[in-house]
Specification:
There is one protein chain. By secondary structure, the chain is mainly alpha-helical. It has helices at 5-71, 75-99, 106-135, 139-148, 150-226, 241-299, 313-368. The mean pLDDT is 78.
Amino acid sequence: MNLSIRQKLFATFGINVILMVALGIFAIYQMSGMNERAHYLGTNSVMSLDVSDDINFIISEYRGLQSEHIVNTTDGEMNRVEGEMKDFEVAMQQKLEEFRPLIASDTEQQTFTRLETTWATFVKHTHQDLVPVSRGNDTKNALPVFNQLQAPFDELAKAGDELGDINLEQAHTAMEAANSTYQGARIFVLSLTVIGAIMAAAFGVVLSVGLSSNIGRLTTGTNAVAAGDLSRDVEVRSSDEIGKLASTFNRMIESLRASRAAEAKARATEIELREAEVTSRQQLEQTVAHYLQFAQQVAKGDLTQRLQVSSTGALGQLGTGLNSMVENLHGITAQVLQANTAIAAAAAEILTATTQQAASAAEQSAALT
């Protein structure tokens, strides 16, 4: 399978993500079950235990108030005891109503029904049989009635204890189920974590070995090129980024080989150009020196000099122009000399004519005198 490094990394990451998601889903599922059991413990078992303890407490206190009613002889004390008994009856009714929705099994329902029925009978006989006899301060007849109520009291205590035992057993069962769920989730999570770690490590080792091997070959080739050896290519058997890099590196080596050949050729050409430049510079210096000497002769007035123009281009055009300039200067000089000769001749003729006129004027002046 030809995959890039990015795709390989994404595949490894994807497998880890899938494992983590599966782990998270299972953990959430198990935590949901544990939460349900914890909720059951908090809202049912614990509350059931609390209510059953309260029921047992009320039964015991109510029995104690029965004996206290017999012992007391004043109406005030009896009224107080009867008021407390009434309060406990109301409290018992509330506790029974609280316990009713917490019933979770048929056995618990049967025990609760027995307790509720026995409690009603117990309270009924207390008000119908015990209280009237006790109010008459007839202890002799009150004690047998009190003893007759011992059986329903024992039944109530037994039912209350059974409810407590049932609720305690339910709490233990819920705790064991929650613990079992926790242990199962713990084992699964640890197993999945270990499997994920092993798979991630395996993928990482395979990927790292392949990458390090290819990178090692590429590094060897790079070091060889850095040392100037362009004769070796890099062999990487993969189609990922490193394989593409190796192909590019090999093309670069080919380009460097071609560049080195072109560089050698360019270096030879550069040498030829430098030699030509030196020759051209020498010729330029010679031509400039010749032109300078020519200019100095012309500056001294020697207009017979002419440049021997052997160069082409701008220097040749300059030499031709200088020759033309000197020829023009020579022609202008000749014309100026001719003009000077003509002017001198004309001046001599004018002087002769002036002399003759002066002599003629002198003669005329002498004749007049």
